[in-house]
Amino acid sequence: MDIRQIREAKILLPSDAEDRLTPAAQPPVRGDLTDLRVRNTDWSRLRAAERDISGCSLTSVTLAEAHLEEARLTNTVFDNCDFASARWTNLKIDRCMFRGCRMIGLQAGDITLADVIFERCRLDYADLTGLHATGAVAFTDCVLRETTIHDSRLDNAVLADCPMPGAQIARTRMRGADLRGSTLTTLTGINCLAGSTLDDTQVPQLTEALLTELGIQVES
């Protein structure tokens, strides 16, 4: 089992066993999606209620407006996939990697995460509600422009080098989270960062964001 360390988080990676995967152009009509290798295809508006995705490798697959519900995503790599305007509801995601994925306008609710990496993903305008990190979770070099994160528990999560212009965080716990390198200037919900780790270059950003949120004007 391969482990990747991102800051202090040690994350169990999906298994690398491409040779055992079955090539597929279309999802099976019924049942789980297991041990599939999918490349350069369009699965827009896929409906997967109570259908797990396990042991797969998806590259350049369009899953725009797909609806995944009451399902488990495990031991799977999503490379350069398009989840624009997709809906995720009550998912358990473990040992997965999302790399270079487009997640603009994603609506995700009641998501349990463990050993999950989001790397170089675009989460602009995503609505993330009820995220629960039960294991290591990392967002690295992701864009979270006007992303909302509400009613979540992201203790010990890593958000490394992530621009977050206009992002909103509310009713969320992030104790032990590492946000070093991320841009916080126009972030709202600064109180949710209690107990997290920042670097010294973020102190002016944090100050500006807090003054803006409290409506305080500083005059010479």
Describe the protein in words.
This protein has 220 residues and is mainly beta. It has a single domain, classed as Pectate Lyase C-like, CATH 2.160.20. It contains 1 helix and 16 strands. The chain has one helix spanning 203-214, and strands at residues 3-6, 9-12, 22-23, 33-34, 36-42, 47-49, 53-54, 57-62, 67-79, 87-99, 107-119, 127-133, 137-140, 148-150, 158-160, 168-170. The strands form 2 sheets. Strands 3, 4, 5, 6, 7, 8, 9, 10, 11, 12, 13, 14, 15 and 16 form a 14-stranded parallel β-sheet that branches. The model has no long low-confidence stretch (mean pLDDT 95).
What is the topology?
Layout: E1 3-6, E2 9-12, E3 22-23, E4 33-34, E5 36-42, E6 47-49, E7 53-54, E8 57-62, E9 67-79, E10 87-99, E11 107-119, E12 127-133, E13 137-140, E14 148-150, E15 158-160, E16 168-170, H1 203-214
Parallel strand pairs: 3-5, 4-7, 5-8, 6-9, 7-9, 8-9, 9-10, 10-11, 11-12, 11-13, 12-14, 13-15, 14-16
Antiparallel strand pairs: 1-2
- Mean pLDDT across the residues is 95
Span of the ends, CA to CA? 58 Å
Count of domain modules: 1
Report the CATH C-level class: Mainly Beta
CATH architect. name:
3 Solenoid
Return the CATH topology. Answer: Pectate Lyase C-like
Supply the helix-strand structural class. mainly beta
**Percentage of β-strand residues:** 35-45%
Query: Could you tell me the radius of gyration in angstroms?
Result: 18 Å
State the shape. Answer: elongated
- Runs in which pLDDT lies below 50 for 5 or more consecutive residues are none
Helix content: under 10%
Oligomeric status: single chain
Largest sheet: 14 strands, parallel
The total count of helices amounts to 1
Number of strands: 16
> Would you list the SSEs in sequence order as H and E?
EEEEEEEEEEEEEEEEH
